[in-house]
Amino acid sequence: MKKRNAYRTGGLALKVVGLACVSCVLAGCLGVGFATAAGGVSHDMQTFGISEVSTPGSASASAESLSDQAADASVTATSRLAAAGTRDISKGVAAIEAEEEAARRAAEEAQRAEDLAHTQAALANRDAQLARDEGAGLTGLAEVDWNVSKAEFVGEWTLRIDAYLAGSPLSGYGVTFAEAAWENGVDPRFSPAISNTESTKGLNCFRSHNAWGWMGNTSWGSWNESINAHVQGLAKGYGYTLSLANANKYCPPTYEDWYAKTLAQMQLI
Questions:
Q1: Which residues does 156 contact at the CB level (< 8 Å), separation at least 6?
Q2: Span 47-60, pLDDT tens digits
């Protein structure tokens, strides 16, 4: 009986010792396992770029560095764009100025050519009339200077005709008479003087805006219209300036008196 108890007691002790050994082995295995697992997790975290935990100070410094780099890049880009924009605008302005200058010169050349053509036409009209009616109508009249620009011609004769027509219904229409004379190549004094002979400068018109006793029943809606029509009619039907021949055509019954009165008025302009 004592031997059986001793045997049981010894067996129990051996089981306890064995269990302790097993526990140690298990503990070691578990430690190794946890270490391995921890190493695996660390490796995975490195794989996704978060292997290190940044401190607040280092994160702030990184943000500031990135902000500074972005600001520098923005300033550089803005400077480059501004410089490029300035160069482009400068070139564009220069090109526009060059085009405007070329257009201005072309316009001046065109105007000079047009002025020369009008001058030549007016002188040809004068020469043609002198050839068929030598000296008539030009005695006592100063020559009209056609060797000027349109602006100079119109400027001079506008003032002279306006002074002559002052206080009459045709007052202020000197520029219309002057421009019409230039365009048709006739003496600028011709039409204004006839207006006095026929209607006292538009005061006694028998038809609307007809200050020249023109074609009996003719009337117009405005002085501008009638002046242009009359000057054009003189150029086509009578010639450059006053003469006995065209006085006889304009007013046959009393053409000599008509001629003398009209010439006297032209001398006043």
A1: 148, 178
A2: 434 344 445 555 55
